[in-house]
Amino acid sequence: MSKSIAKKEKRGMYQNVLHQFNKAADVMNLDPGVRKILGTTQNEIVVHFPAKMDDGSVEVFTGYRVQHNNALGPYKGGLRYHPTVDIDAARALATWMTWKTALAGLPYGGGKGGIQIDPKKYSKGELERITRRFTYALGNNIGPDYDIPAPDVNTNSQIMAWIADTFASNQAPGQRFNSFHVVTGKPVVSGGLEGRDRATGFGVVTTIQKWADLREEDLSNKTYIVQGFGNVGYWASHFMKEKGVKLIGVQDHSGTIYNEDGIDPEELLAYATDNNGGIKGFHKADEYDKDTFFGIDCDIIIPAALGNQITTDNAGMIKAQLVAEGANGPTDTDAEQILLDKGIEIIPDILCNGGGVIGSYFEWLQNKRSEIWKIEDVLIKLQDKLEISFDKVIKTAEKYDIDWRTAAYVVAMERLEQTYTERGVFP
Ligand code: NAD
Fold first, then answer.
1. In testing the pocket of ligand 1, which one of 85, 306, 386 has its CB within 8 Å of the most ligand atoms?
2. How confident is the model over 165-188, as pLDDT tens digits?
3. Does ligand 1 lie within 6 Å of residue 138's CB atom?
4. Residue 303: its H or E element
5. CB neighbours of 415 closer than 8 A, spacing ≥ 6?
6. Which protein residue's CA is at the shortest distance from atom 28 of ligand 1?
7. Digit-coded pLDDT (tens) for 66-104
8. What's the rounded Cα separation, in Å, for the pair 39 and 398?
9. What are the tens digits of pLDDT across the range 263-281?
10. Ligand 1 neighbourhood includes 154 CB (under 6 angstroms)
11. Residue 220 class from Cβ within 10 Å (0-12 exposed, 13-18 middle, 19+ buried)?
12. Which atom of ligand 1 is nearest to the CA of 254?
């Protein structure tokens, strides 16, 4: 089979999700009606909207919001600005959010979306106008008690502030200040939560520590590599440094670097910030081959960039003991089997990066109650919730003798199945 045909036959992201879902549904013998409901997305919103460019011309953009399920509460999940955003990616990411919020025990469902765009090609003013028109196009398909977006790849607190402002500006005057929690991940002064910026990376490291405790491993003797040095990749590296774990390789959209003596995440962040967000050319590390990055001899891999990065093309070369999925869907299902056969453990995305949505939940609660939370309290509560989820996953994996991803799905789906059983299906 030619390589191009083999590539075409690779599963799309949504097919990966359905494969994982069906595997878990078989294990737990999920109710057939609930299986049909959860195997389908509830709403799929596609909008085409115009925005003015700096030179006075007009461009039309395509935005997506997929709402997978809201049995447990409002739809919740990020908005991504990236050329790979399409209906398949939005469906997959929305469905993962349903499992993630259910696993974390939050009163949320799952949604996800974004704009198919390379934001690096646009000025700040253009991005603001694009964001505001996208928000306007979504209209009441989002809302503080209905569907609550958050940052994801290439979106940040500034973009959330524009969304909140645009959404609020379109509400009746008396409702404006009561609608800022339409998004989480806002800047702190605009109602954001102290610590939301680091919540996902902190959560990733919390789950790695749980793994180390379970396996009686000393993290301070370990080395790791990270793919993606944005919000999740940087903050995970920051907290890994606090535990004394040595970062020896980093890959992002701009390049791949390696230093067996260690790379300081804070120095790398300072460099990347001055270098348009890219790590390429960092003077205290060597350039490294892009295609063999995951084969670097290290103990832990943290994928913290895009989906489908660990595939059958590179899974065989992985030497690490552990893959901690900071990103959503970084490991495709065939690659996962290769890793499991090699005895490599995987902390699955819906558990590993769940700190982000837990932090978002705290922000939402803070806004709803007009409270201001302290960062110390946020991190303690976050760690507590993640540790509870981790223990449930391990217990379920042991009960059914299944891998951790399938176990995480079972925990999430048991909660969803129970709520459908209790409430029934209307009418
Ligand atoms: P970000 O935009 O802050 O950073 C993305 C990083 O990925 C950047 O360093 C970029 O250079 C890198 N990247 C992009 N394309 C790449 C490529 N082809 N190869 C290597 N690196 C590449 O995004 P983020 O918020 O850190 O999100 C990263 C991942 O974590 C995504 O999968 C996202 O869905 C997931 N996630 C994010 C959050 C959150 O709170 N931000 C929560 C849960 C999960």
1. 306
2. 999 999 999 888 889 999 999 999
3. no
4. strand 300-303
5. 72, 102, 103, 105
6. 305
7. 999 999 999 999 999 999 999 999 999 999 999 999 999
8. 26
9. 999 999 999 999 999 999 9
10. yes
11. exposed
12. 11
Helix, coil or strand: residue 324: strand
**Which residue has the CA at smallest separation from atom 3 of ligand 1?**
230
Q: Which of 390, 426, 425 is nearest to 411 (CA)?
A: 390
Using alpha carbons, list the distances in angstroms from residue 12 to 24, 40, 91, 348, 389: 19, 16, 11, 18, 28
Q: Which helix (H) or strand (E) holds 271?
A: helix 265-273
- Amino acid present at 76: K
How far from chain centre, in Å, is Cα 147? Answer: 17
Q: To the nearest 10°, report the CA torsion of 81, 86, 88, 92.
A: 10
Q: Which of 103, 183, 197, 231 to mutate to test the pocket of ligand 1 (most atoms within 8 A of CB)?
A: 231
Asked whether 227 lines ligand 1 (CB < 6 A), one says: yes
If you compute the radius of gyration of the chain from its CA atoms, what whole number of angstroms results?
A: 21
Cβ of 228 closer than 6 Å to ligand 1, yes or no, is yes
- Please tell me if the CB atom of residue 353 comes closer than 6 angstroms to any atom of ligand 1: yes
In sequence order, what E strands does 39-154 have?
Answer: 43-52, 58-69, 75-81, 110-115, 147-151
Instruction: Write a three-state SS string for 360-418.
Output: HHHHHHHHHCCCCCCHHHHHHHHHHHHHHHHHHHHHHHHHHCCCHHHHHHHHHHHHHHH
